[in-house]
Each structure stands twice: as C-alpha cells, then as structure tokens.
Write a structure and sequence with these properties.
mainly alpha, Arc Repressor Mutant, subunit A, about 230 residues, about 0% strand, Rna Polymerase Sigma Factor, Chain: A, about 65% helix, 2 domains
Length: about 230
C-alpha cells in the first residue's frame, strides 16, 4: 500500500494509468485520500477564494468539495480526468455557495468583522521571501491589484481566466470542467482577458509614471503575465 501511495503523484494525470489511483480511492484507502487532500487542498482553495468573497466561506467550501469527492468517487468512471472531475465539483460548490451568500450573507454579522484583515488575500503566497522588503511590498501590491481586478470581471469570463491563466488548464480541460464547447471557452477567455486588461491598465500606467520606483517595481507586463 505504501508503495502504491508513494507513486500516486507519478500516476495522477496520466489517463491510461489513472484507473489504478481511482481504484485505491474507491477501495477507501486512507493513505490515498490523505494524498488527494494534500495534493489538491491549496489549489482548490485558491480557485474557490476567487469566486467567494470570504476566506472562511472558501475554506468551508473547500472541505465540502472533498466530502463530495469522497462520496462520489464510486461513481467516477473516467469520462474526464480525475483532476478535471474534482475541479468541476469545486466550481459547482463554489458557485452554489456564492448564490447562497448573495441572498443571505449580507444580512448576517460575521464574527470576523473585528479582525484586522478578514479578507487577507492568498496572493501573499506569491511573494518571494528572498526579495528586499520594498520589492516584496511592490510585488505584493501588484498581486493584490490583480486579485481585486479579477473579482470585478463578470462571470463566466472570470472563471475561464482563472482556470486558464492561473490554474494552467488546457482549453479542452476547461471545456470539460464547464461542460461547454471549445469555442465558448475561447470566447469567454478573450472577453475575460479584455475585462481584466481594462481594469488593470490605469494602474499599470500610473505605476509607469513613477520614475523613482522603476528600478524597484517589476516592469510593466501583459495582463496574462501579471495574472
């Protein structure tokens, strides 16, 4: 069992060999499920956080995704890759939670209201700890601007931008996750990038007008590179 679990990382994502991993999960292997959580918890949280407005809700929804995966793995028959299937569940749960939040959450007072930074961005993980404090702050500011701009991109364009430019999915995988055709995916991606570029352009132009910061702030880049 230990050998099988140890080789899971090499097996996952290779469709012809994926059946062996799925069988371990269907058999109820605790080691396999533990590996699955360690492999997907952070990327799923990052995806869900970009859909939901509250980090606590994102964390709870991430846990609910794994519950759905555990309960549903017996019905997984390989129509899509395991990774695609898991992300499809994550998007479904996140969008459902966001609809619930829109109806109810605004009427509630969260116990996190008094915290210094209840909406701390996961973009902080992008900071290189070996940078100087000034460079780290500058890069963190850019990441935070991108995160904030992403939240203003309308759905369903935002989700496609996140899946393609941040999560690194291929067009075909995104089509499977969203149950959409390839043309729709590419159209949404183009429109999402255009929205994001329009939102970020004023900030990038303002940053480029600060000559004293040019040596420390990362050079202007495309929207895709910034994301």
């Amino acid at each position: 069992m230990g050998t099988v679990v140890g080789n899971l990382a090499g097996v996952i994502g290779v469709r012809p060999e994926e059946a062996a991993v799925v069988e371990q999960l269907k058999a109820g292997s605790e080691e396999a499920f533990a590996w699955l959580i360690s492999r997907y918890q952070q990327p799923l949280y990052s995806l869900i956080y970009r859909i939901l407005p509250n980090p606590g809700d994102a964390a709870d929804t991430t846990q609910e995704v794994f519950v759905k995966v555990f309960r549903g793995i017996a019905h997984f028959h390989g129509e899509a890759s395991l990774r695609t299937w898991i992300y499809r569940i994550a998007l479904h749960e996140a969008l459902n939670q966001r609809r619930w939040w829109a109806r109810h959450q605004r009427q509630q007072v969260t116990i996190d209201a008094d915290r210094d930074d209840p909406h701390a961005s996961p973009a902080e993980n992008l900071v290189d700890t070996h940078e100087s404090p000034f460079d780290a702050a500058a890069h963190a500011e850019i990441a935070e601007r991108v995160e904030a701009a992403l939240r203003e991109v309308p759905e369903p364009f935002r989700t496609v931008v996140v899946l393609r430019d941040i999560e690194g999915f291929g067009y075909e995988e995104i089509a499977e996750i969203l149950d959409a055709n390839l043309g729709t995916v590419k159209s949404r991606l183009m429109r999402g990038r255009a929205h994001l570029k329009n939102l970020l352009t004023p900030y990038m132009e303002a940053a480029n007008r600060k000559p004293s910061h040019r040596s420390s702030v990362a050079p202007a880049c495309s929207v895709e590179e910034a994301v």
